[in-house]
Amino acid sequence: MRAFYKLSILPLISSVFVYANIVSAETSTQHLSAYTNQVLDKKLSTLLGPQAKFEITQFNNTFDRIKIDNQILLASKNGQYLFWGKVIDTSSRADLIELANQQHRLALVASIPREKLLTYTAKKEQHKLTIFTDIDCPFCRKLHTQIKDLNQHGVTVDYVMLPRGKAGSAVFNKTVNALCAANPQAAMDSAMHNGNVESSTQANQTCVNNLKAQQALAQTFGFSATPTILFANGEIVPGLMTTKEILNKLNTL
């Protein structure tokens, strides 16, 4: 977050950070993006320093989207202004920063190989949810009791595992036992019900690395709370929701 902290020196105007008259420079900056905006790239390099890592992507005809660490900002295409907080479109009343975050989340979700996730599939699928969960989280266990009901209502649930412990910790090993079991769904049901699961399946390194990748993915999203529910349009709701609340939300998308 060091690079992002540098933005805190910018003047605060209506919850928006604005930096004007940044001098261009030929500074080399590390970032990844197929989209290029050399003017904005140079100005961000001058502002944040040559070692800063950021990503520039196109947002709309007015703004580009900037990712710095796990933070999403908007910038004018000429690099004159940076915006962080809320940017309200007075016509649509939409928060453009939130829309930029939603687009970013959808791109991240699309990059996940579905076969690597623990999925509870609805027979007559109408909607999909991605839930970031933890076996040791009481509200995650409560939400898990609603999975069958959600499936019956046509909602497929993908789990991204977010155990609150590093490799080798008790919660990490419990999650490995569930994720790497011969029947992961049954093992997860047991773990969520009993708080533990004994698996006769030997966890291979590929499966363990998959769990590590899921933890890293949650960090990329910037999520720390569990459960966190990610909807198909990129909106998130941290915390517990009832089946009725989830279905009502899905019907408004």
Automatic annotation (TrEMBL):
Keyword Cell membrane attached: no
Signal peptide (UniProt feature, chain positions): 1-20
Locations listed in the record: Periplasm
Domain Thioredoxin-like fold: 122-249
Name of this protein: Thiol:disulfide interchange protein
Organismal lineage: Bacteria, Pseudomonadati, Pseudomonadota, Gammaproteobacteria, Alteromonadales
Transmembrane segments annotated in the record for this chain: none
Main subcellular location of this protein, as a coarse class: periplasm
Organism encoding this protein: Pseudoalteromonas phenolica
InterPro entries: DiS-bond_Isoase_DsbC/G, Thiol:disulfide_interchange, Thioredoxin-like_fold, Thioredoxin-like_sf
GO cellular component, one term: periplasmic space
